[in-house]
Amino acid sequence: MTTISKTLMVVAALAVAGCSNPDRFGSGSGAGFGAGAGGSGYGMDGLASDPRSIAYFNQTVGDRVLFAVDQSTLSDTARTTLDGQARWLMDNPEYSATIEGHADEQGTREYNLALGARRANAVQEYLISRGVAPSRLRTVSYGKERPLEICSNESCYAQNRRSVTVLAAGAGV
Amino acid sequence: MLRVLTPLLALALGAALAPAPVLAQGGPLRIVIDEGVIEPLPFAVPDFVAETPAAAELARNIARVVAADLAGTGLFREIPAQAHLARVTNFASPIQYSDWKAINAQALVTGAVAVDGSGRLTVKFRLFDIYAEAPLGDGLQFGGSSANWRRVAHKVADQVYARITGEGGYFDSRVVFVAETGPKNARQKRLAIMDYDGANVQYLSDASSIVLAPRFSPTGDRVLYTSYQTGFPRIYVLDLASGARRGLDDQPGTMTFAPRFAPDGRRVVFSLAQGGNTDLYELDLGSGRRTRLTSAPSIETAPSFSPDGRQIVFESDRSGVPQLYVMPASGGEARRISFGQGRYGTPVWSPRGDYIAFTKQHQGRFHIGVMRVNGSEERLLTSSFLDEGPTWAPNGRVIMFTRESAGADGAPALFSVDITGRNLRRVPVQGAASDPAWSPLLP
């Protein structure tokens, strides 16, 4: 099994575990596994109270940052979150990460794919600038294919213009 | 598949650009699509004559498909069978023009269907100009397997449409698209193909990975698409006859999408994202050689060739917001062609070379529009919460696109509209569907 598929298995497993990250399902199913993949991974993200757990990273450090309309620049809030992600990744070298770039539904499919790539790259570059080894990071754009919130107004769009740092066991790619 | 039945003299169509949108009585039977037809031309298609016992049901069904094709253009209005005064029981019998004139039919299509012992279908048809009291063009005969009866019906309708409008037909064509199921935040997508009218849907992929924006080859034998099969967007080509598929560009650390064939069918132009930047590349399918066409820090995507293969229209945000540009097919200096307010995307060159269709976003609405290839005469054809991704009918006179409704229950559907902005209609597909791509006219 390749590293990529391992990553995806973990993502899919989290989807099945269905803990506090409902959005994981979207990414997991989009990434190439059908429903039911990785069912043995229940609870893999551990307890949020364990600072070395994926759950802690996702919830306490914060796995995502948000972007303004059409933008890929990182806000101060985003930088603070990413500083935390970089520290955590350096403290936990046994994980690699895939950075997903997402866009809201305002925009064409093609443009949003390119925009998601810009956003994911902005996060990747920032994490590298904070000391994370480039070999531990990959990027993928989902464009507008995987919204987190499904209403069609700004309150949802703001949540969908995001990058999500998805952890996977494995030191690098 | 086609042969001339009888060398009947074709009716002269008169001046090529007859201004009358609808036939003036006694004038030539002619619809000029560019003029924006206001009143559809009334026509009748009585059930075709079954010339063998096995053909009875097909004779009825084929006439219905011919009528649906014509009425579906919005250019024609069918006079229903219950209003007919005359019955056509013998294909060779003379037409009683007065009976058709009395119900205001201006065009009449008659036909006959035979099925032989091996299931082979033969369909003959004639088109009549009722007011001229004369056939319009030769009678024709089509043959095929009876399983393909819808295609034969579409071929008949294409002939009728072409003779009356002077444009090429488009009914005997297929559409490849993305069939969607599931909630908006976990949508499952499958490649699918169907007849242009929504019939004969077949799936070309399972729902295990996201698939996007399929595109036909110029001969309709292959389909390009983007899939997340590896976890990352990559372009693939699918051979429709064999079902074989292969990835076209697999460089680690890159994403590829928005592929489209060159008119020669041997090259593919697409977007490649690397390091957050998206540019246009060309891939030679034979040699696998990749050529970079643009080098800019902006987003360059949604490329589409001119029909002569010499130019590419694409979308770029190099000016700050997405606009449309045209450049030589080998790359080089690009000329901006869109200058209106709003954002322009997904340009597609008409197969006739006369227009570029596009998606426009302005003041919170989406539009499908067309403009001349130099950017002049911009015309918006639709307006909704989200319209995008136009694709041209083979004759360059009709556009199909995705329309998505708003909200948590929002879902995409396929719509079509003609280039004058008339005849907006939903393409009847079961379930949600997006990203249509129209094939060329089938052989």
What layout of secondary structure does this protein have?
The complex is a heterodimer of chains A (173) and B (443).
Chain A: H1 3-17, H2 23-30, H3 54-62, E1 64-66, H4 76-91, E2 95-102, H5 109-129, E3 137-143, H6 154-160, E4 162-169
Parallel strand pairs in A: 2-3
Antiparallel strand pairs in A: 1-4, 2-4
Chain B: E1 2-6, E2 41-44, E3 49-50, H1 56-72, E4 76-78, H2 97-102, E5 107-115, E6 120-129, E7 134-135, E8 139-145, H3 149-165, E9 174-181, E10 188-195, E11 202-203, E12 211-216, E13 222-227, E14 234-239, E15 245-247, E16 254-261, E17 267-274, E18 277-284, E19 290-292, E20 300-305, E21 311-316, E22 323-328, E23 335-336, E24 343-349, E25 355-362, E26 365-372, E27 379-380, E28 387-392, E29 398-404, E30 412-418, E31 425-426, E32 432-438
Parallel strand pairs in B: 2-4, 2-5, 3-5
Antiparallel strand pairs in B: 1-8, 5-6, 6-7, 6-8, 9-10, 9-32, 10-11, 12-13, 13-14, 14-15, 16-17, 17-18, 18-19, 20-21, 21-22, 22-23, 24-25, 25-26, 26-27, 28-29, 29-30, 30-31
Task: Sum this structure up briefly.
The complex is a heterodimer of chains A (173) and B (443). Chain A is α+β, with helices and mostly antiparallel strands. Chain A contains six helices and four strands, in the order H-H-H-E-H-E-H-E-H-E.
Brief descriptors of the model:
heterodimer, A: alpha+beta, 60s Ribosomal Protein L30, Chain: A, four-stranded mixed sheet, 6 helices, B: 443 residues, mainly beta, Rossmann fold, Neuraminidase, 2 domains, 3 helices, 32 strands, palmitate (chain A), membrane (chain A), Bact_OuterMem_StrucFunc (chain A)
